[in-house]
Design goal:
The chain is an alpha/beta fold. The chain contains eight helices and eleven strands. The termini are far apart.
Length: about 325
């Protein structure tokens, strides 16, 4: 924006108007934003888009590293309730993994097979299960590897994936083996990330599904129109999300205590999303797609409304 337009922008703002380039988002001010339950998060979104910035450099958005955490063993789950599908943990993981492979290959077709690296961090799954994982991963068209986590447990594996991502210069998708993906999931998240970076000059976080609680209370949001779906601002997600490694490094304090996830000690409360990665949304935009590009296939209450997961589940049946 040149100096004349910048001065004009300041002038019209006195009367409640704003000036933006035709291809940029214009976010209307929210009255008394500080009084809203999620006001700080909305304000962070608006500030990101409201600042003047030069042309964004997309060079560091051309590569993606996928960290996929897997774990199938009897003591995996603290919550012993039956899963939504009624299937075993192994079958859940295999079908979800198959859907993730399909989505990665779709993104590789769009971006190039050299643009994506996949690292599977496995937390001591049974050897027979690991062999099945390898068979499901075999169709990947990009580089991939399976690495055993350094320590046993959900918290240590989370902390390890974040630590591995911190020094990288790529986009990152942190994912778990119980997320069922649409074929276009990774392509769409990557495309929308590009769009947000171009429009705001900054980074963001994408959670692949909306939480049901977005529809059960007052949750003010901005909604953006993307090429294939709508995207809603949010400030509540799990540790599965799409972002840039720079975000992990810049806000490392919000990732450090994830090592306590799953612990039964007094430190467990230090690891919840509310006091770790959800703090990111005080600084940068968070988005969820409508409809979702993936769903957390554990319990009914974790699914967004009006999403029929069964056709996607059936399409990813694995016969091994």
């Amino acid at each position: 924006m040149n100096e004349a337009l910048r001065l004009l922008r300041k002038l019209v703002r006195r009367w409640g108007y704003d000036l933006k380039a035709s291809d940029q988002y214009l976010l209307r001010p929210v009255p008394h934003i500080e009084d809203l339950p999620h006001g700080l998060d909305l304000r962070a979104v608006k500030i990101m888009f409201d600042q003047d910035h030069g042309p964004s450099n997309g060079a560091d958005l051309d590569r993606l590293t996928v960290y996929l955490r897997t774990c199938v063993r009897p003591d995996r789950n603290i919550d012993k309730r039956p899963r939504l599908t009624g299937a075993t943990d192994e079958e859940n993981a295999l079908r979800c993994l198959a859907s993730t492979v399909t989505s990665i290959n779709d993104a590789a077709t769009d971006r190039g097979t050299d643009a994506i690296d996949v690292v599977v961090l496995d937390d001591r799954s049974a050897l027979e299960t690991l062999e099945k994982f390898k068979q499901v991963l075999a169709p990947l068209t990009c580089s991939w590897q399976i690495i055993r986590t350094k320590e046993k447990g959900q918290g240590p594996s989370l902390h390890e994936q974040f630590s591995r991502a911190r020094p990288l210069k790529t986009l990152i998708y942190f994912c778990e083996d119980d997320y069922l993906h649409e074929p276009v999931a990774i392509r769409d998240m990557w495309q929308f990330y590009d769009l947000i970076h171009q429009a705001s000059g900054g980074h963001c976080v994408i959670y692949p599904q909306e939480h049901k609680n977005l529809y059960e209370g007052h949750y003010p949001s901005y909604i953006f129109a993307g090429p294939t779906r709508r995207w809603r601002t949010m400030s509540d997600a799990t540790h599965t999300f799409f972002t840039h490694a720079k975000v992990v490094d810049t806000y490392w304090d919000y990732f450090e205590n994830t090592k306590y996830v799953g612990e039964r000690s007094k430190k467990r409360h230090l690891a919840t999303e509310k006091v770790t990665t959800n703090r990111l949304y005080e600084h940068i935009p968070g988005f969820s797609p409508i409809p979702p590009v993936a769903v957390h296939l554990q319990f009914e209450e974790l699914l967004p409304p009006l999403f029929d997961w069964r056709p996607l589940w059936d399409a990813n049946k694995v016969d091994l």
